[in-house]
């Protein structure tokens, strides 16, 4: 399914999409610029992208590989017969973005649900001095004393953590149900 530039940029305005892309880029904001250049040009070499954005070639390559791992770009490799060097020409495959976002959101949801189950099914203790938290079995093994400072462990109330996890799960489940991005 081919998306128009308007549809693509509308997807980029979605905070959930931005968060997933930011995660794909490992926090490197230049990843957005690289995608923007590829959308503008249709395809480009890593060198062309680096020059157009005035970025270091290694950064551009690193980000292109991360974006490629997420399957949001593809490349064509050509060998220069005179130099034996390869040239990579990159093109966007942004139409896969809804699938990538949904897959990552489902992965996040699975992690949140596992964490919620862990929080609901365990009793915790903590050291107020070292701010370390232990499950009951760990606390019992140390005689309810902190292994770092030997202070006495206190019971930890994790109701706020459980509440927060439930809210996050509800948010992501609602996004999957109601966000038009996921109905593609």
Can you offer a commentary on this structure?
This is Transcription factor E. The structure is a single chain. The protein has about 180 residues and is of the alpha+beta class. It has two domains: about 5-90, Arc Repressor Mutant, subunit A, CATH 1.10.10; about 100-184, no CATH class. It is about 55% helix and about 15% strand. It has helices at about 5-15, 15-25, 30-40, 45-55, 55-70, 95-120, 135-140, 160-180, and strands at about 45, 75-80, 85-90, 125, 130-135, 155. A three-stranded antiparallel beta sheet has the order 1-3-2. The protein starts with a helix and ends in a 6-residue tail after the last helix.
Give the helices and strands, then pairings.
Layout: H1 5-13, H2 15-24, H3 30-41, E1 44-45, H4 46-53, H5 57-69, E2 73-79, E3 86-92, H6 97-120, E4 124-127, E5 132-135, H7 136-141, E6 154-156, H8 159-178
Antiparallel strand pairs: 1-3, 2-3, 4-5, 4-6
Helix pairs in contact: 2-6, 4-5, 6-8
GO molecular function, one term: DNA binding
Keywords: DNA-binding, Transcription, Transcription regulation
Domain HTH TFE/IIEalpha-type: 13-98
């Amino acid at each position: 399914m081919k998306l128009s530039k308007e549809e693509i940029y509308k997807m980029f305005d979605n905070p959930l999409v931005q968060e997933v892309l930011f995660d794909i880029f490992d926090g490197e904001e230049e990843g957005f610029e690289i995608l923007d250049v590829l959308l503008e040009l249709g395809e480009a070499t890593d060198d062309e992208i680096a020059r157009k954005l005035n970025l270091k070639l290694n950064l551009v390559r690193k980000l292109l590989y991360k974006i490629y791992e997420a399957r949001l770009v593809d490349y064509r490799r050509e060998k220069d017969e005179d130099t034996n060097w390869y040239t990579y020409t990159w093109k966007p495959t942004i139409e896969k973005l809804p699938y990538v976002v949904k897959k990552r959101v489902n992965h996040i949801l699975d992690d949140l649900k596992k964490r919620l189950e862990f929080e609901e099914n365990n009793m915790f203790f903590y050291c107020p001095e070292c701010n370390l938290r232990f499950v009951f079995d760990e606390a019992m093994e140390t005689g309810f004393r902190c292994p770092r400072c030997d202070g006495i462990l206190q019971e930890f109330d994790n109701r706020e953590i459980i509440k927060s996890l439930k809210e996050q799960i509800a948010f992501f489940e609602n996004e999957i149900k109601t966000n038009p991005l996921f109905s593609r």
